[in-house]
Amino acid sequence: MDLAYVWFLIVGFLFVGYFVLDGFDFGVGMSLPFIGKDNTDRRVLINTIGPVWDLNETWLIVAGAALFAAFPIWYGTLFSGFYLALLVILLALIVRGVSFEYRHQGKGEQWTNWFDWMIVVGSALPALLWGVAFANIIQGVPIDETGNYAGTFFTLLNPYGLLGGLTTLMLFFTHGVIFVTLKTDGELKARAKALVTRSTGITVAVAASFLLWTAWQHRDIDHLPVLLGLSAAAAVFLIAAWVLNMVGREGWAFTTMALTIVFAVGAILAALYPNVMPSSIDPAYSLTIENASSTEYTLTVMTWIALFSLPLVMAYQGWTYWVFRKRVTRDSIPVGASH
Questions:
Q1: DSSP per residue, 236-261
Q2: Which whole-number Å values give the CA distances from 229 to 38, 212, 261, 262, in the listed order?
Q3: What is the CATH code of the structural domain delimited by 3-329?
Q4: Where are the annotated coiled coils located (predicted)?
Q5: pLDDT digit string (tens) for 122-154?
Q6: Where are the domains of the chain?
Q7: CA distances (Å), origin 271, targets 91, 178, 183
């Protein structure tokens, strides 16, 4: 297999890892006003992701770096055309990170509530805009003969793009609330479990609509059975997550929800293949895996680096999750403390 296609899969894998890991971070952040009845509850929720949220975001950095090195033309067109959406995502991530650190400074209830809402917004905006961005990529965007994006930010806010954004928003929200059931106990866990039951129904409806629309748009591609198979697998795992949550199998529910995101992103990549950014102006202007990739020498060097570095990164992250595997409870929050 040509190394360009290998790196298309590697970049896809890195974004899958980012969406699975930072996805539940976003979900936990968005859940604060729904299941956090007081400051102690909200502190428990934040502490469930406290040791790992910044580590999860490194997947985005690695994915962006791999995209820049392996597909510089794709990277250039994407970041120049989607710069406003990506800037909003970056600012939201900064605001969220700052809020995690500053909400505990003990300057009063209003101060804490303000930063809590910044966490909610800083989690919801990336969850929405990542879906909008990827939906537009697979639908096709106005790329001219020079390879430049010819649209505006508002071009991205079309019905299909917004449905894609709502899909990732609900997938990440449900993923995060399931994570809360896995990491907490008592009344907080019970509220999270009940919320999963309600949110999964909305998630199924939204995600099914998006994947069916995607399949219809790409009904003429040769590998349509692959797209349909991946979409069906995502639907099955999403329903399985709902059932497992109902019967109290939180670990398996979290695993199947993660697999839902894996197969959903796989369906998106299948719809995109062999393009990386289709042009809605003229298919001849589309960026493909072959015409947007780096040289063979560059990809060869990158492949050797990835063979050594990726297993180490994954092993370290797995070890981190093992160390912080225990549940977080209200009793673990010191009485009278502000964080």
A1: HHHHHHHHHHHTT-HHHHHHHHHHHH
A2: 44, 12, 14, 13
A3: 1.20.1630.10
A4: none
A5: 999 999 999 999 999 998 889 888 878 888 888
A6: 3-329
A7: 30, 28, 35
